[in-house]
C-alpha cells in the first residue's frame, strides 16, 4: 500500500468546512446573546425607583435629624414586663449629664418585623424622674419592633423578644 492510496481514502478538512463551522459557532453565540439582550431590555422598566429624588431628600432629612438627636446627648432604655395580668412598657430618659428628663411626650409604635398586622400605637405616661410607662394588652410571643419617640427630636428603635 502506497502513501497515495492512504491519502485518497482520507476525508480532508476543506476551507469551506472551516468557514461553515465558524459561521455556525458564532451564529449560535450571537443568537443566544440576542435573546438575553431582548429579555433584559424587555423586563427592566428603566427606573430603579419611582421617586428617587424625593427619597434622597428624605434621606438627607433623616441624616440631619439623626445628627440633631446625637447633639442632644440623651440616653434611653426600654423594657417589657409581663406579669400575666397585662403587659407594661417602661422607658427611661436621661440627659447628657445623667439627669433624668421629665415632661416629655413619649409614644411608641409596636409592630412585627415582617409586618402583616396594623401597628399598635401606645402613649406613655410619666411615672416620675425620667421614667415613663404604658399599660398594654399582652403581646403575642415572638419578635417585635418598637419605635420610641420623645417629643419631636428623639427617635430610637428597639427590638424585643416576647417569650411564650
Summarize the helices and strands and which ones pair or pack.
Layout (H helix, E strand, L loop, with lengths): L2 H7 L5 H29 L8 H21 L2 E8 L4 E8 L11 E6 L8 E4 L1 E4 L2 E6 L5 E9 L3 E9 L2
Antiparallel strand pairs: 1-2, 2-6, 3-4, 3-7, 5-6, 7-8
Q: What this model shows, in words?
A:
It is built from 3 helices and 8 strands, in the order H-H-H-E-E-E-E-E-E-E-E. Helices cover 35% and strands 33% of the residues. The chain is an alpha+beta fold and 164 residues long. The termini are far apart. A hairpin with an 8-residue loop joins strand 3 (106-111) and strand 4. It is elongated and about 105 Å long.
Query: Kindly, what is the distance between the CA atoms of the first and last residues, rounded to a whole number of angstroms?
Result: 93 Å
Radius of gyration: 34 Å
Order of helices and strands: HHHEEEEEEEE
What does the largest sheet look like?
4 strands, antiparallel
- The amount of beta strand, in percent, is 25-35%
Query: What is the global morphology?
Result: elongated
Strand order of the largest sheet: 1-2-6-5
Amino acid at each position: 500500500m502506497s502513501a497515495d492510496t492512504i491519502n485518497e481514502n482520507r476525508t480532508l478538512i476543506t476551507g469551506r468546512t472551516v468557514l461553515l463551522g465558524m459561521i455556525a459557532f458564532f451564529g449560535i453565540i450571537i443568537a443566544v446573546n440576542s435573546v438575553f439582550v431582548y429579555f433584559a431590555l424587555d423586563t427592566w422598566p428603566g427606573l430603579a425607583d419611582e421617586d428617587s429624588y424625593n427619597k434622597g431628600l428624605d434621606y438627607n432629612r433623616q441624616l440631619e435629624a439623626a445628627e440633631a438627636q446625637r447633639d442632644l446627648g440623651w440616653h434611653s432604655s426600654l423594657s417589657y414586663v409581663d406579669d400575666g395580668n397585662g403587659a407594661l412598657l417602661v422607658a427611661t430618659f436621661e440627659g447628657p449629664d445623667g439627669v433624668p428628663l421629665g415632661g416629655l411626650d413619649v409614644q411608641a409604635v409596636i409592630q412585627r418585623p415582617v409586618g402583616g398586622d396594623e401597628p399598635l400605637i401606645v402613649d406613655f405616661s410619666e411615672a416620675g424622674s425620667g421614667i415613663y410607662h404604658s399599660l398594654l394588652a399582652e403581646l403575642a410571643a415572638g419578635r417585635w419592633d418598637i419605635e420610641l419617640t420623645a417629643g419631636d427630636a428623639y427617635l430610637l428603635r428597639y427590638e424585643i423578644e416576647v417569650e411564650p
